[in-house]
Specification:
The complex is a heterodimer of chains A (967) and B (287). Chain A is of the alpha+beta class and 967 residues long. Chain A is 29% helix and 23% strand. Chain A has 24 helices and 38 strands. In chain A, strand 16 and strand 17 form a beta hairpin. In chain A, helix 18 packs across helix 19. Chain A is elongated and about 145 Å long. With 287 residues, chain B is an alpha+beta fold. Chain B has a single domain, classed as Ribosomal Protein S5, domain 2. Chain B is 28% helix and 29% strand. Chain B has five helices and 14 strands. In chain B, the strands form four sheets. In chain B, strands 1, 2, 3, 4, 5 and 6 form a six-stranded mixed β-sheet that branches. A four-stranded antiparallel β-sheet of chain B has the order 12-11-13-14. In chain B, strands 7-10 form a two-stranded antiparallel ribbon. The longest helix of chain B is centred in the last third of the chain and has 33 residues. Chain B is elongated, with a radius of gyration of 21 Å. The chains are: A alpha+beta (967), B alpha+beta (287). Chain A: It comes from Multifurca ochricompacta. Chain A: It is found in: Nucleus. Chain A: This is Ribosomal RNA-processing protein 44. Chain A: Belongs to the RNR ribonuclease family. Chain A: Keywords: Exonuclease, Exosome, Hydrolase, Nuclease, Nucleus, RNA-binding, rRNA processing.
Chain lengths: 967, 287
């Protein structure tokens, strides 16, 4: 007879096997539920060749897990938490995720309860051969008596929520696996210690992860999360975290930097994980790594378009393996880099403020599914912003085919933690690419220039008479004449560029009986028309400045004021704000006074006309005499400034002549005009600004609106100094502005006259930019203007086109007791905030102006290229100077066109970072090596090619001399 | 209360005149009635008249949550009202068949033909979008109500400007008052215009049916078949509506389409001039 053994379950086990609880049904009845589960002790762990667990027939996990991950060199298995499946199912399904997976029964059941579709996908995943998943029934596993004491079947503790119980079960499971492996492969005496693979708990739940770390379970998280605001503020206060603006690197989209005060160099953020979804311009909180982990900035050019062109817009993203592959691009570590090159490196832990706005983009044509124009289905496409600093934006639209080839405005809505790209939506279309209107509008939008027409409320702020307004006749009770001096008899004249309509300033000078000279600068009295709390004032404050594009001018104030009522036109009376000095013949100031006035300009000269008039010895009238006096004084003033160490830096001004015919070249690069009259106006404007600065600082030490130029940090010049020393043997002394000016004067190359200009241009780039500031926010020794070598400075002389000048006018008027100062200008926070806006607008306006010039240069180059193609005169070539070196290319500056370009090498090259040279082996005439170094003159061939994807006309430069570098 | 069917005398008189290619009000067969338009003080408020038929159209915009399935698109609703003011046949409070038909046609013409770009009405995806509400009130119905209503709607949509909205950092939305910042016109892909024809059976065998453009009251009631075409000045057909009635040969239909295309271009030119004139008068923006 067969022996039957009846084994009775032991009573102690009842605690694990039975679960009793009371449940309330929908009808309101209370029923008692008893659930029993039966535990076994032979639940297999699933690893191949495990000594203990009987290996069953199905696929099991390899002995050592996956051995190719750098964090776990001995091999690892992954034990995912529920949230990983719920949120990143695609990652787990992807063929890139090759680690063997241990699936706990707890996890499977949780997934089933949360989402049936995901559960189905998970089951399908398990069946795949290449996936190597093993289902471990941890709920059924009983303790094994003599080998380990822990079970994996876990009972809910009192007060534990079901979710926590599951989390604990998962942790217990992971811990059990790790001990199981170490116990089943004990070291045998005489043989080498076997290396043990680790089981890694993969979870995104912060709580779970922290608890796991406490219990010493190896774990990892799939992606970076943000810290809570409380943690962020605490970290900042404690000094461990820092705050700053995030700046993307325009040459490498996987790198960014944040400038913080605590470190002299900006903190680098390398890699997508460390940048953690920050976008250019956001205010972020960062954590800085230890010094051993600091890296040097990359010297490789990594282009977002070419690297990511195979990304699919629709796929939800795969972090993990894909990133590891991309970022294996070799970084120059340790050895060949001097220590000083290393910069603090860190990562973003939180975003304080997003500064997103609408961006001008093109639709990436490769990301479209169907390009039939009648397709109205919703598609997810990529929009590539025109600015290189921004990431691609994913957006859904139904008009994608119609929008190809157009410039569009897209705004970002959010950037999920699971997503590689930010998501956004379509705002409006600007027009076909390369059409005038679309390009112009796109330029203005890229730099956030407010260009919409003024509203009706602004119109109501203008004087009712409109164009017919005149200065009212003098009278005791006329409000416009209150406290104004009548300077109409004076010989005042204005000197401006040709074609100038908004005349801000006018000058005069005359001899006094006591031998001194009275000189005066008169500025348009804009603050008489633009009163604080006006809608016009609010709009002007938002605009900050007038923007000058090549073919258009976006006014800060309505044209009626700018070109007529405020403009100091000749032959009419106008209101003005005057600064009048009594100067010795040596141009030393004896007395200064400020007054509101009424003037009548006698003449409006251009620089050239004034120069001619001054030089014309036949003319001896008062007006000409006045100009000559001003000139002599200006010369002395300038000499004084140069002696004090003012800098004379070069920035080439590219002028575009729009009205020249197609055949002649519209581009003309002019250096700044060097006529005496230019210098005259400049010197007196500077003098006026300085005098006003002193006055308002004295009157309002807390809230005066001033302008400063910080001395550049020595670090900015390091590279230039190094290059000059190594290539030309010229030292550059940057200890003070005077020393720098003297050094620059000595940078001459007798063979190359343009060398000095080139060095000046490069020095200009090392400078910081000047900015407006509020006097109470900054210590007095930081007031100075480095470039002008003046201890204090402000902007006073152009209120028509700069808002800061309007504020200065108001403060000066209060300082001379003409009127009371508006309450807002007594508040430091308000002034700081307004100046922030003005500074930003000023920067944007500069960039917009430059971009406009570049656009026209591109057009002209295209025309030239076409012309040379038809005339078969060969490629368009120009001389250029090398100004910067990268690992895979050089940055050149074409002086004749005033543009920069990047030349990447297609051949084999050897890059020597220390000597700033590139060696191209065997490419010279006789087969010798050709060496290209910084400051060398080369010839490049320039063409404008239309990028297929972005539809941008890109200036492409290829090396022509010393070697022809073609594909 | 429905007006009584036309009397036999009226019918005979009409058809006799038609046989001689004469219309009751002296127009040519393909001659439309006089157009008139006047703009209210608000932007988007328009009263349009076609002969004696008068329609009032008003466009309004407010910010709402978008639909869950279409988080990137704004909403457009069209609402029509034919009150007894328009004619004694319309009863107050009850939706007459004509009202429903009118609402449906306008919906097809303006909303479903994607005349207005809805994606540009999005402010924050998934949270806030513009909801445009176009309401039509018929003031007087003397035939051709659909033509007049669609012209009024097109005018109102062209004339309307919504306030400028600034979104900062994907969270804050600032709506600027239309006096401080100039308001923004709606982005329209195309402007459809509606043209109606009335058809009458041919007088004899083997002849073609006769076609009248812009039928007035009696002509509409006596028509054997009605054809309504909505098209853009660029010769794109938006809606073709022929519900029953006299069967038409393809040549007649195409003929009607050609006439309608010319008419649409005329309407567009006329509307453009009038809208611009009114904007200039209102001084909507200062440059």
């Amino acid at each position: 007879m067969v022996e039957i053994t009846i084994r009775k379950r032991q009573r102690e086990d009842a605690a694990f096997t039975q679960r009793k609880f009371f449940k309330k049904t929908a009808r309101g009845k209370v029923i008692k539920v008893v659930r029993e589960r039966y535990l076994r002790d032979d639940v297999s762990c699933g690893i191949e060749k495990c000594r203990e667990c009987a290996s069953t027939l199905e696929s099991h996990l390899p002995f050592s897990g996956a051995v190719d991950h750098k964090l776990f060199p001995n091999g690892h298995f992954v034990l995912p938490d529920t949230n990983v499946f719920l949120a990143q199912m695609d990652l787990m399904e992807s063929s890139f995720f090759r680690s063997p997976i241990i699936l706990l029964q707890t996890v499977l059941e949780e997934v089933r309860h949360r989402s049936l579709p995901l559960y189905n996908r998970l089951k399908a995943l398990m069946k795949l051969d290449e996936k190597r998943t093993w289902m471990f029934y941890n709920e059924f596993r009983l303790k094994h008596n003599f080998i380990h004491n822990r079970e994996t079947a876990v009972v809910r503790e009192v007060g534990e929520s079901p979710n926590d119980r599951n989390d604990r079960a998962i942790r217990v499971g992971t811990a059990w696996y790790n001990t199981h492996i170490s116990l089943t492969r004990p070291p045998i005496r005489g043989r080498p210690v076997p290396v043990l693979p680790t089981i890694v708990l993969l979870t995104d739940d912060v709580g779970n992860r922290l608890k796991a770390e406490k219990e010493k379970i190896p774990c990892s998280s799939v992606q970076q999360y943000y810290l809570s605001t409380g943690a962020l503020t605490a970290g900042i206060k404690a000094g461990q975290l820092y705050q700053g603006h995030f700046n993307a690197n325009q040459f490498n989209f996987l790198e960014g930097s944040v400038t913080v005060e605590a470190y002299s160099k900006p903190v680098l953020l390398i890699g997508r994980e460390n940048m953690n979804r920050a976008v250019q311009g956001d205010i972020v909180t960062i954590e800085v790594f230890n010094e051993q982990e600091w890296k040097a900035p990359t010297d490789e050019v990594v282009d977002q378009e070419s690297t990511l062109k195979n990304d699919d817009a629709d796929e939800s993203d795969e972090e993990g393996e894909r990133i590891v592959i991309e970022e294996k691009a070799p970084r120059p570590e340790g050895l060949s880099r001097p220590i000083s090159e290393k910069q603090p490196t860190g990562r973003v832990v939180g975003i304080i403020k997003r500064n997103w706005r609408a961006y001008v983009c093109h639709i990436d044509s490769t990301s479209l599914n169907s390009s039939t124009t009648t397709s109205l289905s919703q598609q997810t496409v990529f929009a590539t912003p025109v600015s290189r600093l921004l990431p691609r934006i994913r957006m859904r639209t139904r008009q994608a085919p119609a929008l190809l080839g157009q410039k569009i405005l897209v705004t970002i809505d959010k950037w999920d933690i699971t997503s590689r790209y930010p998501e956004g939506h379509f705002v409006r279309a600007l027009g076909k690419v390369e059409s005038k209107e679309a390009e112009q509008e796109s330029l203005l939008l890229e730099f956030d220039v407010p260009y919409r027409p003024f509203g009706k409320a602004i119109l109501d702020c203008l004087p009712a008479e409109g164009e017919q307004w005149v200065v009212p006749p003098k009278g005791a009770h006329i409000p416009a004449w209150r406290d104004r001096e009548d300077l109409r008899p004076l010989n005042i004249c204005s000197i401006d560029p040709p074609g100038c309509e908004d005349i801000d300033d006018a000058l005069h000078a005359r001899r006094l009986p006591n031998g001194n000279i009275e000189a005066g600068v008169h500025i348009a009295d804009v603050s008489h028309f633009v009163l604080p709390d006006n809608p016009m004032d609010a709009e002007a404050a938002a605009r900050g400045t007038t923007v000058y594009l090549v073919d258009k001018r976006i006014d800060m104030l309505p044209a009626l004021l700018g070109t007529n009522l405020c403009s100091l036109r000749p032959f009419v009376e106008r209101l003005a704000f005057s600064v009048i000095w009594e100067l010795t013949p040596d141009a030393k100031i004896k007395k200064t006074r400020f007054t509101k006035s009424v003037i009548a300009s006698k003449c409006a000269f251009t620089y050239e006309e004034a120069q001619i008039r001054k030089d014309d010895l036949n003319r001896q009238d008062d007006l000409t005499d006045s100009i000559r006096l001003l000139n002599t004084l200006a010369q002395k003033l300038k000499a004084g400034r140069m002696a004090a160490g003012a800098l004379n830096l070069a920035s080439p001004e590219v002028k575009i002549h729009l009205d020249s015919a197609e055949s002649s070249d519209p581009i003309d690069v002019e250096q700044k005009e060097l006529r005496e009259t230019n210098s005259l106006v400049e010197e007196f404007m500077l003098l006026a600004n300085i005098s006003v600065a002193e006055k308002i600082q004295e009157a309002f030490p807390q809230t005066a609106v001033l302008r400063r130029h910080m001395p550049p940090p020595k670090a900015n010049f390091e590279r230039l100094q190094d290059i000059l020393q190594k290539r030309r043997g010229i030292p550059l002394d940057v200890s003070s502005s005077g020393a720098l000016a003297a050094s620059l004067d000595k940078c001459i190359d007798p063979n190359e006259p343009a060398f000095n200009t080139l060095v000046r241009i490069m020095a200009t780039r090392c400078m910081l930019s000047a900015e407006y500031f509020c006097s109470g926010s900054v210590p007095k020794d930081a007031f100075g203007h480095y470039g002008l070598a003046s201890p204090i400075y402000t902007h006073f002389t152009s209120p028509i086109r700069r808002y800061a000048d309007v504020l200065v006018h108001r403060q000066l008027a209060a300082a001379i007791s003409y009127g009371t100062l508006h309450a807002s200008l007594h508040s430091k926070t308000h002034v700081e905030h307004t100046l922030d806006v003005v500074n930003k607008r000023h920067r944007m306006a500069q960039m917009a102006g430059r971009a406009s010039v570049e656009f026209y240069v591109g057009l002209a180059l295209k025309a030239r290229g076409e012309r040379s193609a038809t005339l078969r005169t060969g490629k368009v070539t120009e001389e250029a100077f090398v100004i910067r070196m990268f690992r895979n290319g050089i940055n050149v500056f074409v002086s004749k066109l005033g543009i920069e370009g990047l030349v990447t090498f297609k051949r084999e090259t050897r890059f020597d970072a220390n000597n700033y040279t590139f060696v191209i082996p065997g490419s010279g005439q006789g087969g010798e090596d050709v060496v290209i170094a910084v400051f060398d003159k080369v010839t490049v061939s320039i063409e404008v090619e239309k990028d297929k994807n972005t539809q941008r006309g890109k200036v492409k430069m290829t090396l022509f001399k010393p070697i022809v570098d073609s594909i | 209360m429905r007006p009584p069917s036309p009397s036999i005398a009226e019918k005979d008189f009409f058809f006799n005149a038609l046989n001689q290619n004469l219309r009751l009000d002296g127009r040519e067969l393909l001659e439309p009635r006089q157009l008139g338009i006047s703009f209210g003080s608000e932007l988007g408020h328009v009263e349009c008249s076609l002969g004696k038929t008068r329609v009032l159209a008003h466009v309004d915009a407010k910010m709402v949550r978008p639909e869950a399935q279409r988080p990137f698109e704004g909403l457009i609703t069209i609402h029509c009202e034919l009150s007894p003011m328009a004619g004694s046949e319309y009863e107050p409070g009850r939706q007459s068949d004509e009202e429903i038909a009118l609402a449906r046609m306008l919906d097809k013409i303006f909303r479903r033909s994607d005349a207005i770009d809805r994606e540009t009405l999005c402010i924050i995806a998934g949270e806030r979008v513009w909801h445009l509400h176009l309401s039509i009130h018929a003031l007087a119905d003397a035939g051709g109500l659909l033509d007049c209503a669609s012209l009024a709607s097109a005018a109102a949509l062209r004339h309307f400007r919504r306030s400028e909205v600034e979104v900062i950092g994907a969270r804050e939305v600032i709506v600027h008052d239309s006096t401080t910042r100039a308001p923004v016109p709606l982005a329209m892909h195309h402007t459809p215009f509606c043209v109606s024809f009335a058809f009458y059976s041919p007088p004899g065998v083997g002849r073609e049916p006769r076609m009248l453009l812009d039928p007035a009251g009696l002509e509409q009631r006596l028509a054997h078949g009605m054809l309504t075409l909505a098209l853009t000045p660029q010769r794109e057909l938006a809606v073709v509506h022929k519900a029953g009635g006299l069967p038409l040969a393809p040549e007649s239909l195409m003929g009607a389409v050609q006439v309608a295309a010319r008419r649409a271009r005329e309407l567009e030119a006329w509307l453009d001039v009038r809208v611009r004139e009114d904007w200039g008068r209102k001084k909507v923006e200062v440059r």
